[in-house]
Specification:
Elements: H1 3-24, E1 39-40, E2 72-74, H2 76-86, H3 88-108, E3 114-127, E4 135-151, E5 155-168, E6 175-187, H4 194-197, H5 199-262, H6 270-303, E7 315-317, H7 331-341, H8 343-364, E8 369-382, H9 385-390, E9 398-406, H10 412-479, H11 485-519, H12 523-526, E10 529-530
Parallel strand pairs: 2-7
Antiparallel strand pairs: 1-10, 3-4, 4-5, 5-6, 6-8, 8-9
Helix pairs in contact: 2-5, 3-5, 5-6, 5-8, 5-11, 6-11, 7-10, 8-10, 10-11
């Protein structure tokens, strides 16, 4: 083997080791990325009767096109998609997974290869030996280049190349020394193993997943709020119409009372009751219009459509509160969905997994520190750099190997940390059990409320029918002189109340369904919305 070929082999070996170090840094380093997109899904896993709650024929699920001016005309589904695209609070929450993902990069950086290098010059002036004149000048130049990396196995590995040039006026020849070295330090107890060294990175990834479920919960709450506000706005609009109809009827009753007073059938005192009823209708109308304006502000804030004059924009709803064609499954099915889909339960499961990783870390900290190390080197000496590099293939070498040990007798800090991790893990388990109970109570209560609200619709409709007939009879009796203005006003007031109660019952039923779906964690799926955190976390999932 020629010296030129030997030099080439050294360079090739250096490049090979560097490549192996970079490749080793990719071990168990999958990104574990989380999808942050929130938007419409083409197929919903809950596409049953519930899909028809919000999507009548002709209503498309694509994001609606909103003009930057003029009235804001929206369906329920369109309002949901607009809020998911434009709502400012959601935009803030969407940044959390990306922010937490930077913690993953920080933990990955522990295993990144490090390139080191240096250059230095040294000069020393000293007296020449006796009999010589002048001073002795010693010069030395050092250059080095190396690559090192800490591997997930608990191994420190590095390779370096260096050259030293020294010369002096005490002798004529320059001296070059070139060295190639390989160093390996392997943790045998504390700091050893993939489970320990990857624990922090895995915790960071779980933290990112937790943020994804938090984002899902926020999006679900936003969708619920948009729907509820939509129906509140529609309800208030209908209440205004009811008050206007009732006011018109009260004014008609006043006119009839006035005519009957004029012809002497009724006393003038009867007019006071009719005027009082008109005043009550106007009072209710004022309150309803005020509620409409406030609800309009709320829905505009939630949807946040592009507009330079947002708060003065008129909102026109294309859907009226109607009883949806929905048949709820049995209560246990809804509870089962909640135990699988609720984002807070999935977050709690991830917190338990993070606690398991913390136990791995603290348990390893109880071990004494014992490391095996070995340093290998080959050095060539010659009168030039090229010759010294070629002479590395010679018989000279150096090797250093051994074991280092560090054992804290009490190790109180590590023991305290490990006990804390065990207690925290137990606390997380108990919190999980408590949360499961709370979720079941939430879903069962919401299920009962949904059924109550549905039954209430029929009851209020019957009440409204009877009150309408009662008002009609009382009006007829008044016209033939067998009733009073006060009794007619009371009958009309009861009819007004029953009409509003019936409308409120329909809105309450719609909102009770929304709340049930939100509490069981299926609202986004039922609305055809894709969001992170869709997959449930298994209690015994691998980390």
């Amino acid at each position: 083997m020629t010296k030129k070929k030997t030099t080439q082999n050294l360079v090739t070996a250096f490049i090979t080791v560097v490549g192996c170090i970079v490749l080793a840094s990719c071990i168990s380093m999958d990104n574990g990325s989380v999808e942050d997109h929130i938007g419409p899904r083409t197929v919903s896993s809950f596409s049953t009767n519930t899909e028809r709650e919000l999507t009548p024929p002709g209503d498309h699920k694509a994001t609606p096109t909103v003009k930057p001016e003029g009235p804001l005309t929206v369906t329920v589904q369109g309002a949901i998609l607009m809020a998911l695209e434009n709502n400012r609070a959601l935009k803030v929450e969407k940044l959390n997974p990306a922010i937490l993902r930077t913690a993953e990069e920080e933990e990955r950086s522990v295993f990144d290869p490090i390139l080191t290098g240096g250059y230095s010059q040294f000069r020393k002036k000293s007296e020449k030996p006796s009999g010589s004149t002048g001073a002795g000048l010693n010069n030395e130049i050092n250059a080095n280049l190396g690559v090192s990396e800490y591997l997930p196995t608990g191994t420190d590995i590095g390779i370096d190349m260096s050259t030293d040039q020294s010369w002096s006026n005490l002798y004529s020849d320059d001296l070059y020394a070139s060295r190639v070295g390989l160093s390996i330090t392997q943790a045998l107890l504390r700091g050893a193993g993939l489970n320990y060294n990857l624990a922090r990175l895995r915790q960071a990834r779980l933290g990112t997943r937790v943020s994804a479920y938090e984002l899902r919960g926020f999006a679900e709450a936003l969708v619920a709020q948009v729907e509820e506000t939509y129906w509140d706005y529609a309800l208030t609009q209908r209440q205004i119409k009811i008050f206007l109809d009732s006011l018109k009827l009260a004014e008609q009753q006043k006119n009839e009372t006035g005519e009957m007073i004029r012809i002497g059938v009724l006393a003038e005192s009867e007019l006071a009751a009719a005027e009082a009823e008109i005043a009550l209708r106007r009072e209710g109308l004022i309150n309803a219009r005020s509620n409409l304006e406030k609800t309009s502000l709320q829905i505009l804030r939630l949807l946040n459509p592009p507009d330079t004059n947002l708060w003065q924009r008129e909102v026109i709803l294309l859907h009226e509160p109607k009883v949806p064609n929905v048949k709820l499954d049995d209560i246990e099915s809804h509870v089962g969905v909640a135990l699988r889909m609720r984002q807070d339960l999935n977050q709690a499961r991830l917190q338990i997994q993070m606690g398991d990783l913390e136990i791995v870390k603290t348990k390893n900290g109880l071990l004494p520190k014992m490391d095996f190390f070995i340093n290998l080197g080959k050095t060539g000496y010659a009168g030039s750099f090229g010759s010294s590099a070629r002479d590395i293939d010679g018989n000279t070498y150096d090797i250093l190997a051994g074991v280092s040990l560090e054992y804290p007798f009490i190790n109180r800090k590590a023991r305290a940390r490990h006990r804390k991790s065990l207690l925290s893990r137990k606390q997380a388990e108990e919190a999980m059990k408590n949360l499961v109970q709370l979720v079941q109570v939430d879903v069962r209560s919401a299920y009962i409320e949904a059924n109550r609200a549905k039954e209430q619709i029929s009851a209020t409709a019957a009440t409204r029918t009877f009150q309408k007939e009662k008002a009609r009879i009382e009006t007829e009796k008044f016209r033939v002189g067998k009733s009073t203005t006060l009794l007619v006003a009371q009958a009309q007031r009861d009819l007004l109340s029953s009409r509003i109660t019936e409308t409120q019952a329909i809105a309450n039923y719609l909102k009770s369904l929304i709340e049930l779906y939100r509490l069981e964690g299926s609202l986004l799926e039922r609305r055809g919305i894709m969001a992170p955190g869709r997959e449930p976390v298994s209690d015994n999932a691998g980390i």
